[in-house]
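ok, trying the design again with the full structure, not the truncated one.
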């Protein structure tokens, strides 16, 4: 994507195939192939994602809307 900074990286090892999650200033990206390729998570388009944490319910992301530079 167009990310300038990576804020958090987590690896979900709950299944036999690792899923990589990357929080950036231009959204959340997910890799289902153990980091070989990444795709943007549509629900976080236009958001700045700060952190990720695994909870008993699933993953929780801290995010806020991004605004363009003046």
């Amino acid at each position: 994507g167009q990310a300038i900074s990576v804020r958090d990286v987590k690896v979900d090892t709950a299944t036999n195939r690792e899923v990589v999650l990357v929080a950036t200033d231009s959204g959340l990206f997910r890799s289902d192939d153990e980091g070989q390729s990444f795709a943007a998570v549509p629900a976080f388009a236009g958001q700045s994602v700060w952190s990720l944490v695994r909870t008993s319910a699933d993953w929780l992301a801290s995010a806020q809307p991004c605004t363009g530079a003046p």
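Keeping the full-length input from now on. Residues 28 and 42 are 8 Å apart (CA to CA).
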